[in-house]
Amino acid sequence: MLTAELVRFTRRRGQILPRFVPPRDPALLALASDMIATVEAHVGATRAELEEALACWIPAGQAGRVEQGLAKLLDKRCAWSTAAPVDPVALRETLFDLAANHHPVAPDPSAQGTPRAQLIEEAARRHGLTSLETEEALYADLKSAQRLTSFRTLSDTRLVERYNLALAQTLLLRAASMEVLVRETQAPVLRQLFRWLKFFQLMHRSHHSAEGLRVRIDGPSSILQQSQRYGVALGSFVALLPHLQRWELRAEIRWSPDRSPDLLRLDERSGLKPGWRLTGTWQSDAERMLREQLARTESPWQPCDESVLIPLQGGEVLVPDVTLVHRLDGRRVHLDIVGFWRRGWLESRWQSLQQAHIQGWILCLSRQLATERVDTTDCPTPLLTFASVIPLKQLLALVEQHALPPAVASSDT
Length: 413
Known about the structure:
Helix content is 37%, strand content 20%. The chain has helices at residues 26-41, 47-54, 65-75, 88-101, 116-127, 131-137, 156-171, 187-199, 227-238, 285-296, 343-355, 392-402, 406-412, and strands at residues 9-12, 15-18, 78-81, 105-106, 114-115, 147-151, 175-182, 204-208, 213-218, 247-253, 262-267, 301-304, 310-311, 316-318, 322-326, 332-338, 361-366, 383-386. It is globular and about 95 Å long.
C-alpha cells in the first residue's frame, strides 16, 4: 500500500475516483524499469546511497507522487539489515563515557582538548575493532545506514500494475463499509471467496441476491481499535478479487477532513491485476494450528475437508471454518473461527444463528483481534475465546456437548 500523501484521486458528485496510471504507457514502463535496475544494482549499499540514486528519477513534491509511489512499492520488496560488528548503542555509550571523562573533546588536532581520534582509538580497542570499523559502526543502526541485503525483483509491467492496486487498497483504509458483488455463483468460486474472507479474518455477512452473492464487509474506519491492522487485511483481500471474472466492489470512503462519505466503485473493468497468487491452503493461523493439534492427538474428532455452505433466512449464507466429525459415530459440529470482531457484528451473527435455529455451531473468538472490549457472557451461542491458539481440551469439551447426530446435521446443512 501507499502512504496517504501519495494517494491520487478525484472527487466528483459524491464519488471518489482513483487516478490510475495507464499500465502499458511506454514512458512509465521505461521509468519503472530504470528504477528496478537501480535497486538491483544497490544490493549491499546503504539506504541513503539507494535513496540518492533513485532521487534522479523522482521529481520533488506533488508532481512526483507516481514516482514516489513506485519507490515506496520497491522499498517494500527490499530486505534491510543493520551491518555492525558490535551493538552500535553499546559502542556509543563507550564513546560518550570517554568523552565525558576527557572533556573537552577536540574535533581535530589543531583544536584544544582531547583529540576525537584518540577517543575513537580507545573505544575501538575496548571493543576489538579498528578505528575505521568503529566509525562505520557508530551509527550503523540509523535507518539511513541500513544495508540492502536482498531485493525481490519484478517486471516493469508488474510494478505499474502493483501501483494501481496499491492506490485502491490505500483508499480502502478509510472505508466505513464495503460490499462486494460476485456474479459467479458456482460453488467452487463461492467456496474460494469464503476461504479468502476467513483467511484475512474479516467481519462480513453474505447474502444471495438475484444478481449473485453480496458480501458486506465492515470497513477499517468503523472500528475503534486495530483499524490499521484490519485495513491491511482488507486491502490484502481486495488484491484477490481480480482473480474473479465478474465482480463489483462498492465502498463508502471517508477521506475528506469532515469525514463526509464518497462512493468508490471498482469492478472487473477497472483494469486491476491480482496481488496474490492462488496457491496455498488459505487457512488462518488459528485454523492451521488447530488442525495440527488434532493431527497430533488420538481424538476421534477430526476435521472434515468438505466445504459446507449453510443457508439462513433472508438469503444469508454461512460457511464454517472447520467441520469436526466423530470418526466412530458420525456426529459433527461446525466451528466458526472469528478473527476481527466487535459487539455489533457479534450480535448480528447470534441473531442469524438463532433465527435459523442453527445447532451444532461453536464460535471461537480471538481475544487478540477484538476491536473493542466486549462482555460475551450473555452469548446465546456456544462460544470459546482464545489468544493465539485455540485450547484443544476446552474446545473438545464443547464439541461433545453440542455435536449433532448425522441425520440432524445433514438436515441443517
